TrEMBL record, chain A:
<protein>
    <submittedName>
        <fullName>ABC transporter permease subunit</fullName>
    </submittedName>
</protein>
<keyword id="KW-0812">Transmembrane</keyword>
<feature type="domain" description="ABC transmembrane type-1">
    <location>
        <begin position="61"/>
        <end position="256"/>
    </location>
</feature>
<dbReference type="InterPro" id="IPR051789">
    <property type="entry name" value="Bact_Polyamine_Transport"/>
</dbReference>
<feature type="transmembrane region" description="Helical">
    <location>
        <begin position="60"/>
        <end position="86"/>
    </location>
</feature>
<keyword id="KW-1133">Transmembrane helix</keyword>
<feature type="transmembrane region" description="Helical">
    <location>
        <begin position="180"/>
        <end position="200"/>
    </location>
</feature>
<keyword id="KW-1003">Cell membrane</keyword>
<dbReference type="Pfam" id="PF00528">
    <property type="entry name" value="BPD_transp_1"/>
</dbReference>
TrEMBL record, chain B:
<feature type="transmembrane region" description="Helical">
    <location>
        <begin position="12"/>
        <end position="34"/>
    </location>
</feature>
<feature type="transmembrane region" description="Helical">
    <location>
        <begin position="212"/>
        <end position="235"/>
    </location>
</feature>
<dbReference type="InterPro" id="IPR000515">
    <property type="entry name" value="MetI-like"/>
</dbReference>
<feature type="transmembrane region" description="Helical">
    <location>
        <begin position="77"/>
        <end position="104"/>
    </location>
</feature>
<feature type="domain" description="ABC transmembrane type-1">
    <location>
        <begin position="82"/>
        <end position="288"/>
    </location>
</feature>
<comment type="similarity">
    <text>Belongs to the binding-protein-dependent transport system permease family. CysTW subfamily.</text>
</comment>
<dbReference type="Pfam" id="PF00528">
    <property type="entry name" value="BPD_transp_1"/>
</dbReference>
<keyword id="KW-0812">Transmembrane</keyword>
<feature type="transmembrane region" description="Helical">
    <location>
        <begin position="267"/>
        <end position="288"/>
    </location>
</feature>
């Protein structure tokens, strides 16, 4: 069937316009002189200057980045282990429960994850004394728990499509399994680990709801500061922050996309 | 199996480490939600009475309190929040499918070197902050926002449209944020569709719209249902979108739970709301697992 081309193109144009107009409007108005977000008062970069002087926001951003980096690293290790277990070991006790526990965090409403973890932390603290109070540690644990599920999905699809003959050849030639894992398996799945790390980092950096539940006094993350400022109304400083985030993300995604594209082309060439 | 662990215990470690992490930090917490939902609120830190109490040395008593659940049933506020969540989740799932299906279809039928960039463009907004993307819609939808300025400037409306703080704003926000979750699974099933089936149908004189209804749509059903559940389940408990874009009459479970917890400091009632939400999500979750498995089987 030859689908009607103009129809398909207009569907795509409409869809992408819907996705990108809000983001473009944020960027445009971040350079607006006027405080009123919908009135154009001329080009200015003063909101970026104010952003850099907002110490509360910068402190929160630094905390969020540290939490996200820790979360992403932990989530990559745990998520990769979960993916290895599910792809490489066909039958084991607890497989069904592991499958459910890896899928459920992907869709579980954040309010439930946040509340339930908070209640766990409170109960653990009265029983064992750990965690003493809530803050960065508890946020990292909470974020790792849902982020590892995303990592597991990304790594699983890579592992499932991997050519096993390379590992078999190495094993036949006498390499030890651990060495095979580090010299063959790991380099092959490395792109998915990088993608998983970035995904976990972004999810953690972005989370408001779960962090609000499991955070304590003194641990205010960037989304919490943004949320309280957005609740008070539209502010050009948040537009400037949004533009910086969009810029960083676009650069990262373009680089990742380029790498992915090159690898896919190389795979296709070697497959031919 | 080719991957034989170095030590007999390596296999166990690979399985046990993620299993215990998730059991401790994902599964076990639900038991605490259940437990606290059966306790009484009190003015203390933490603000609930423990179920197991020691009366006098050695004697313990377990006090189970169902009043939170009785309140959920008695006060129509909670029932309307459940219905409100179901309505918002249902309608936005449908809207996501109506917009996402044609997009996924168009991407799957585009020239192969276009597909990856087009998919990347779908995912890119998802990588930028969720909160900030919701915030962007405030600037567009509010009374003196971009949309109203544009419509009034074009002379299409005389007075600004009240969209902000209405259910329409909530639907726009939800569809905007959850669109990638339907486009990706739909694309995955549509790209694997065997095009020779369509050719055969066309050769036998089947019209294009009938080919779509009889072949493409049924074969992409696993993708449709997986995508639908990926939207429906999280939206049921959504808090940020109804809070920032919705009005006071936008009643949803996630928002109500947040208020009970943070404003009213009623942890037991918030827990029973969480339990109610969990129960409402069991069936959609089972469906999701079922259709994801079917989609996987279709892929291999």
């Amino acid at each position: 069937m030859k689908p009607r081309l103009p129809l398909l193109i207009s569907i795509l144009l409409f869809g992408y316009a819907f996705l990108y107009i809000p983001i473009v409007s944020l960027i445009v108005y971040s350079f607006n002189e006027s405080r009123l977000v919908t009135v154009w008062g001329g080009f200015s970069t003063k909101w970026y200057g104010e952003l850099l002087q907002n110490e509360q926001l910068l402190g929160a951003a630094w905390l969020s980045i540290r939490i996200a980096a820790l979360t992403a690293s932990l989530a990559v290790v745990l998520g990769t282990l979960a993916a290895l277990a599910l792809v490489r070991f066909r039958r084991f006790r607890g497989r069904g429960s592991l499958e459910v526990m890896v899928t459920a965090p992907l869709v579980m409403p954040e309010v439930i994850i946040g509340l339930s973890l908070l209640l766990l932390f409170v109960a653990l603290e009265t029983l064992t004394g750990w965690p003493a109070g809530r803050g960065m540690d508890t946020i990292v644990i909470a974020h790792t728990t849902f982020a590892m599920a995303y990592v597991a999905v990304v790594v699983q699809s890579r592992l499932a499509h991997m050519d096993l003959s390379l590992e078999e050849a190495a094993l036949d030639l006498g390499a030890r399994p651990l060495k095979v894992f580090f010299t063959i398996t790991l380099p092959i799945i490395a792109p998915s680990l990088v993608a998983g790390w970035l995904l976990a980092f972004t999810l953690s950096l972005d989370d408001l709801v779960v962090a609000s539940f499991v955070s304590g006094p003194g641990a205010t993350t960037l989304p919490m500061v943004v949320y309280s400022s957005v609740r008070l109304g539209v502010s050009p400083e948040i537009n400037a922050l949004a533009t910086i985030i969009v810029g960083l993300v676009s650069v990262a995604v373009l680089i990742a996309g380029g790498l992915l594209w090159r690898q896919e082309r190389r795979n296709r060439l070697s497959a031919d | 199996m080719s991957f034989k662990p170095a030590l007999p215990s390596a296999r166990h470690l690979i399985i046990a480490v993620p299993w215990f992490w998730l059991a401790l930090f994902f599964l076990l917490p639900f038991l605490f939600v259940l437990k606290i939902s059966l306790s009484e609120p009190t003015l203390a830190q933490p603000p609930y009475l423990d179920l197991i109490r020691e009366i006098e040395d050695g004697f313990v008593t377990i006090v189970v309190n169902f009043s939170n659940y009785q309140l959920l049933l008695a006060d129509s506020l909670y029932l309307s929040a459940l219905l409100g969540s179901l309505k918002v989740a249902g309608i936005s799932t449908l809207l996501c499918l109506l917009i996402g299906y044609p997009m996924a279809y168009a991407i799957a039928r585009s020239p192969s070197h276009w597909r990856l960039p087009l998919l990347m463009l779908i995912i890119l907004p998802f990588w930028t902050s969720f909160l900030i993307r919701i915030y962007a819609w405030i600037g567009i939808l509010k009374t003196n926002g971009l949309l109203n300025n544009l419509l009034m400037g074009m002379g299409l409306v005389d007075s600004p449209l009240a969209i902000m703080h209405t259910p329409i704003a909530v639907y726009i926000g939800v569809v905007y944020n959850y669109l990638p979750f339907v486009v990706l699974p739909l694309y995955a099933t549509l790209i694997r569709l065997d095009l020779t089936l369509l050719e055969a149908a066309a050769d036998l004189g089947c019209r294009p719209w009938k080919q779509f209804l009889l072949i493409t749509l049924p074969l992409s059903m696993p993708g449709v249902l997986a995508g639908a559940m990926l939207v429906f389940i999280p939206v049921m408990g959504e808090f940020v979108i109804p809070d920032l874009l919705g009005g006071p009459d936008t009643l949803m479970l996630g928002k109500l739970m947040w208020t009970e917890f943070f404003s009213n400091k009623d942890w037991p009632l918030a827990s029973s709301l969480a339990a109610l939400l969990l129960v409402a999500l069991i069936l959609p979750f089972v469906l999701l697992r079922h259709f994801e498995r079917r989609a996987e089987e279709a892929a291999t």
